[in-house]
Amino acid sequence: MEQKKYYIETYGCQMNVYDSELVGSMLNKCGYQITDDIKSADAIFLNTCAIREKAEETVHNKLDSLQSLKNNKPELLLGVLGCMAQNLKDVILDSKPYVDVVLGPDSYRRIPEIITNRNENMNHYVDTRLSKFEVYDDMFPSRREGVNAWISIMRGCDKFCTFCIVPFTRGRERSRSIEGIKKEAVEAVRQGFVEITLLGQNVNSYRTPEGDFSNLLDEIAQIEGIKRIRYTSPHPQDIDENLVKVMAKHSNICNNIHLPLQAGSDRILKRMNRTYTKQEFLNLVKMIRSIIPDCELSTDIIVGFPGETEDEFKETIEVVKASLFNSAFMFKYSSRPGTKASQYSDQISEDEKQARLEELINVQKETTLLRNQRYIGQTVDVLIEKDSKRSELQWSGRTEGNMWVVFDKSNCSSIKDIVKVKINSTHGVTLFGEIVNSLERKKNEAA
Ligand code: 5AD
Ligand code: SF4
Description:
Elements (H helix, E strand, L loop, with lengths): L3 E7 L3 H16 L2 E3 L8 E6 L4 H20 L4 E6 H13 L5 E3 L7 H8 L6 E3 L20 E5 L1 E2 L10 H4 L4 E2 L2 H13 L4 E5 L7 E2 L2 E2 H8 L7 E5 L8 H9 L6 E3 L7 H6 L6 H14 L4 E8 L6 H14 L3 E6 L17 H24 L5 E9 L6 E6 L4 E5 L9 E10 L2 E6 H11 L1
Parallel strand pairs: 1-2, 1-3, 3-4, 4-5, 5-6, 7-10, 10-13, 14-15, 15-16, 19-21
Antiparallel strand pairs: 8-9, 11-12, 17-18, 17-20, 18-19, 20-21
The structure holds 5'-deoxyadenosine (5AD) and iron/sulfur cluster.
């Protein structure tokens, strides 16, 4: 019998990347192999994102484009997974009746049963129940070969920021066992991964009877063979000195924190239900840099939240300048039906949001340049990840602080190595340099 094939397309955050790998391992068990050729697939899954309207539009368009494929091949299984499935199951089923399967983020264990039953009848399958317990602790995702392995450590979010759909699409917070996570990390190292990124919608709210996020990080850092550890995304409220000290204690935990600011005005932060003030955020940045002086920070910011005045937006710019982030993901507020903020009557016009976004991007560009220029003349550790986009003769890798560096290959360097690179210049968000060992060799040869 011919081998069945599945194709999966992932939208949105890293948690979805991880979930797609979990789904992949379940499909493997059902005898399906992955393919990159959508036309030859027997099953197509879209793992979707609902965080902003644009993300949803992209998936709707993709589903529209798949209709003819499905018409020509009725036995094709077409599945919508993830946050949009959870949120928009009725809309999807009404407007796209050719979709066969709709599964929310807590329902992936049903995949084997659905595949088996489907061979007997061609029904629709819909399951978007959210679970208080599901953490897929006993499952190993099917990862493609690479440098970094994502490991989900907790799921869901209880913070209920008023702009955010995640608490509704992914449900309540729950954490995996330390043992389960360690097992998965050891297995990832055995498979050849050298970097681990711990994932959660609210990664540092991780809590089990055996320990909290600092305890977990401390234990993972001691697993042999892990060159680098990162985590994302934390909430500023749950970062304390203890956590930063654990980061400082282990050389394989990267000096890098993604610290979502969202807004710089106290009134807007309160309306967003972010649970910290501008001053508390700035104090946190100070505390982190007092313990880890070379810690690089990145952030998320939303402009044009309902009711944000020009002066309040200027406060965001102020905090952004003062925090010296290396990089920032900047978004125009997108109203999400069902969230508290979508009911606020003082929504900001699209033009205003666009103008604020452009102003903020320019401010951050200047800061990124300043932050990157500090590295010129310095030698930094770079983990080689892939060929550079520009040339096969150059490597592309990241510093501990999460900045991309491009440099000429040397004879003895390969992917997954950490090499010393002297930085010579910077352009956009990228640093350019040369491997120090080969520099020294050249000097020796000349002598
Ligand atoms: N509109 C715009 N950006 C949003 N984010 C979350 N919800 C929205 C929304 N409704 C952003 C936040 C979050 C990041 C993952 O996405 O900045 O940190
Ligand atoms: Fe959304 Fe806030 Fe939870 Fe992050 S902490 S997932 S922004 S509700």
